[in-house]
Amino acid sequence: MASLGWVTVSERRSTGFTLRQYMGVTDRHSLPGYTMRPPDMDENAAVAEVINACEVEARGEREANPSDVAKSWTAPGFDLRTDARAVVDDSGHMVGYAEFERTDSPAQIECDGFVRPEFRGLGLGSWLLDWIEARANKIAADAPAGSRAKLQHFLWMQEKHGADLLTSRGFGVVRHFYQLVIDLDPPPAPPEWSQGIVVRKMLPGDERALYAADEEAFSDHWGFVATPFEVFRHHNFEGENFDPDLVFLAMDGADIAGGSICRLHRTEDDAGKGWVGDLFVRRPWRRRGIARALLLESFAAYRNRGYERVGLGVDAENPTGALDLYLGVGMSVDSEALCFEKELPPADR
Questions:
Q1: How far apart are CA 46 and CA 275, in angstroms?
Q2: C-beta of residue 286 within 8 angstroms of C-beta of residue 264
Q3: What's the pTM?
Q4: Separation CA 283–CA 294 (nearest Å)
Q5: On the chain, which terminus has fewer CB atoms closer than 10 Å, C or N?
Q6: What's residue 287's pLDDT?
Q7: Distance (Å, whole) CA 163 – CA 44
Q8: Closest CA to 291 of 189, 179, 193, 190
Q9: How far apart are CA 118 and CA 44, in angstroms?
């Protein structure tokens, strides 16, 4: 899940700060002493530091690392010149950052925005949001005629400043998500497999079939947008966090009934915490305990590697009962995030 760190133009909560003052800053095309521009490829570490400054304040954890930032910039369809912006001060120090998380569908657009906490009160968050909305409107112009494109931004529950900013600009909360964790000591229960189901690790040549199974399983989830294979492969099967021995397939003969796509670790602060990226079961095989077995298989693999904790993200309103499953195996809610959404003007305006 994306992490976010929007700030409003004022850290104050006094009633003397008016909306008119607030909006006056957002209308500016520049701010004295600061420059907004596309980041350079070698600034991935600086971007990670901006994100982590917001993460530490909100949750006490460093969520980003430079390699993940660089990987997001090289995703198919992402253009660093048009899809990201950095804000730097006159000394060249990066203090803010924004990007588009996904542009696979011009009708559903995801964005992220961050401003270092010590630079609140300057209008930088509003300035970046101006850019995001302008860019989103250009993307939405490619949506089918008459459709209503949506711009989404996720925030941790603790990020009150960001919530105020987004709400003032017409965003509303449409969904809740949880990040759950489990300690692997004592060890979780061993997996029990449904009759006819055999688990195995990912093998060379599984990529296309695993992609198709994953897309099918998630197609009935809220907010689903079809992902091109090249994008799916880039995010799941490439980079230093990918290990095919941490991708588990529940097989029913030659059919993939479900799968668990895990990652070695996500950040420099949680090298001892594994991450279950995608856990899915295709509809014909649901209600047979396969998801639970895949999850427990993943836990066991991480524990065998010396990992202390495992985390994952889930839609709090997931219709498959995923949240109950996770809580039932001993996971607990660690963080809560909100999905803010704003409807953009019609594509045929």
A1: 24
A2: no
A3: 0.86
A4: 15
A5: C
A6: 94
A7: 26
A8: 193
A9: 20
Burial of 120 (0-12, 13-18, 19+ CB in 10 A): middle
- Contact assessment for residue 96 and residue 33, using Cβ atoms and an 8 Å cutoff: no
Distance CA(12)–CA(150), nearest Å, equals 30
**In this structure, are residues 16 and 76 in contact, taking their beta carbons and an 8 Å threshold?**
no
- Whole-number Å distance between alpha carbons of 171 and 286: 35
Measure the CA–CA gap between 124 and 280, rounded to whole angstroms: 39
User: Within 10 A of 280 (CB to CB), how many other CB atoms are there?
Assistant: 25
Peptide bond into 191 cis (omega under 30): no
Block mean pLDDT (10 aa), the chain, length 349: 32 24 40 96 97 93 89 93 97 97 76 95 95 92 80 94 95 96 95 97 98 96 90 92 96 98 73 88 96 98 94 92 95 96 77
Tokens of 74: 């090289």
Say what the pLDDT of residue 288 is.
96
The greatest distance separating any two alpha carbons of the chain, rounded to the nearest whole angstrom, comes to 68
Answer yes or no: same fold for 19-179+338-343 and 189-329.
Answer: yes
Q: 3-class SS at 115?
A: strand
Which among 197, 203, 224 has a CA at the least distance from the CA of 292? Answer: 197
- Class (C level, CATH) for 19-179+338-343: alpha beta
Provide the residue ranges of all domains of the chain, joining segments of one domain with +: 19-179+338-343, 189-329
Total residue count of the chain as it appears in this document: 349
Please give the DSSP secondary-structure letter assigned to residue 96.
Answer: E
**Fold type of domain 189-329:** Aminopeptidase (3.40.630)
